[in-house]
């Protein structure tokens, strides 16, 4: 169950990072509200998952999901560059997450 909660926490990290971009430095109300709400949910779920998962594993997976998810949103929604080198970098992050999960098993 802790892994499912951790994945959801990572997805909320993607939500708040994306909303933060749209908040324009916290000058727009609703994206700012979504950012802060998403942060609270994400941190809360991360904290809950750390009750049974090791700190290093939980934090690495959480930030990895957030990084790759924000990267994907940037490309798919915001029109950011999808250069081969950036795609390889994202693949390396996902590979590291898979190895972290396997190492914890």
Automatic annotation (TrEMBL):
InterPro entries: EmrE-like (IPR037185), Small_drug/metabolite_transptr (IPR000390), Small_multidrug_res (IPR045324). The chain crosses the membrane at residues 27-46, 58-79, 85-104. It comes from the Bacteria. SUPFAM superfamilies: Multidrug resistance efflux transporter EmrE. Keywords: Cell membrane, Membrane, Transmembrane, Transmembrane helix, Transport. It is a multi-pass membrane protein. Gene3D superfamilies: 1.10.3730.20. It is found in: Cell membrane. The keyword Repeat does not apply. The keyword Methyltransferase does not apply. Belongs to the drug/metabolite transporter (DMT) superfamily. Small multidrug resistance (SMR) (TC 2.A.7.1) family. Gdx/SugE subfamily. NCBIfam families: PRK11431.1. This is Guanidinium exporter. It comes from Sphingomonas molluscorum.
């Amino acid at each position: 169950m802790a892994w499912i909660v951790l994945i959801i926490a990572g997805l909320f990290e993607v939500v708040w990072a994306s909303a933060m971009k749209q908040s324009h430095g916290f000058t727009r109300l609703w994206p700012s509200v979504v950012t802060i709400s998403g942060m609270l949910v994400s941190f809360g779920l991360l904290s809950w998952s750390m009750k049974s998962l090791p700190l290093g594993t939980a934090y690495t997976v959480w930030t990895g999901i957030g990084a790759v998810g924000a990267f994907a949103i940037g490309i798919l929604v915001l029109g950011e560059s999808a250069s081969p080198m950036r795609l390889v970098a994202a693949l390396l992050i996902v590979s590291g997450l898979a190895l972290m999960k396997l190492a914890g098993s």
